[in-house]
Design a protein that fits this description.
276 residues
């Protein structure tokens, strides 16, 4: 009963209704799937033109899968912060947060409901692209298990970036500030970790494992390590032989998610106590 009340509550119901009531959500879904479809067809067209009359091979299909997965990861990382970085600060700006806090809903229920409702829309968007991925299976080279692993990876990235967005939305009163900070952290995870790893790899040849640990924070590097297991051999050897970048990425992002959600809840809890 407690679990059902936590998952199905007025906050989540309101978020679902408001998100799908306007034309923006269906348009966002349409343009997202259209963008992925155009990228896939563009890739196929260029490959066919370059390899006439041989056509597409399983190897080409595998590279198409890599290309689509990387493009979708970038789109997910771009959209998720925008969906979550204003969920609490937006309520504050509309002067509805105080009303929400006077209800019997706990701070954890409010935070988790806001996070889940935003992530659920991204899940809908991502799973709507499955028909595009079916093109890959027409030519072979990719197994259903690899597709499932990539989509599970997407979910982890969504939840982590979404929880960071909720955290900044809870900590700062202005939505624009929380949005900027969330995108800033996202760029840090992609850009700084990648550049720092390259710098350490090139300058400190004997400390390549440090580059591997830095890439453990980088979603793109972690995805590459899922596709190409040999990628991790560049950074880990000896006692660390067999370690993959995604082996580091999963627990690191799980910890970031838990910490972000915890502090989001703690940030609301004192307000609730003062109002009792």
């Amino acid at each position: 009963m407690a679990i059902g009340q936590r998952l199905i509550n007025p906050v989540m119901e309101k978020e679902f209704r408001l998100r799908m009531r306007t034309i923006r959500s269906p348009l966002a879904l349409m343009f997202y799937v259209l963008a992925i479809g155009v990228l896939a067809l563009g890739f196929i067209y260029m490959e066919v033109q370059a390899r006439v009359p041989r056509g597409l091979t399983p190897e080409d299909s595998r590279f198409l899968f890599y290309f689509l997965s990387g493009a979708q990861l970038v789109l997910i990382s771009f959209m998720t912060p925008g969906l979550t970085a204003g969920v609490i600060s937006g309520e504050r700006e509309k002067q509805t947060l105080n009303i929400l806090l006077t209800t019997q809903l706990s701070s954890s229920t409010i935070v988790l409901s806001k996070l889940f409702s935003s992530i659920s829309f991204m899940l809908l968007v991502v799973f709507a692209t499955l028909p595009v991925y079916s093109i890959v299976f027409l030519f072979g080279g990719i197994s259903p298990g690899q597709l499932a692993a990539v989509f599970a990876f997407y979910v982890l990235v969504m939840v982590t970036l979404g929880s960071l967005g909720v955290l900044f939305s809870t900590l700062y009163k202005k939505t624009v500030v929380s949005v900027i900070l969330t995108y800033g952290v996202t760029m840090f995870l992609y850009g700084f970790t990648g550049l720092a790893a390259i710098f350490v790899y090139e300058v400190f040849r004997g400390a390549r494992f440090v580059s591997g640990f830095l890439l453990g924070f980088n979603p793109l590097a972690a995805m590459i390590s899922i596709f190409e297991p040999d990628f991790g051999k560049e950074f880990f050897s000896g006692n660390l032989d067999g370690l993959q970048i995604w082996h580091l990425f999963v627990p690191v992002y799980a910890v970031i998610t838990v910490v972000a959600v915890f502090f989001s809840i703690r940030r609301l809890r004192p307000v609730l106590k003062k109002r009792k």
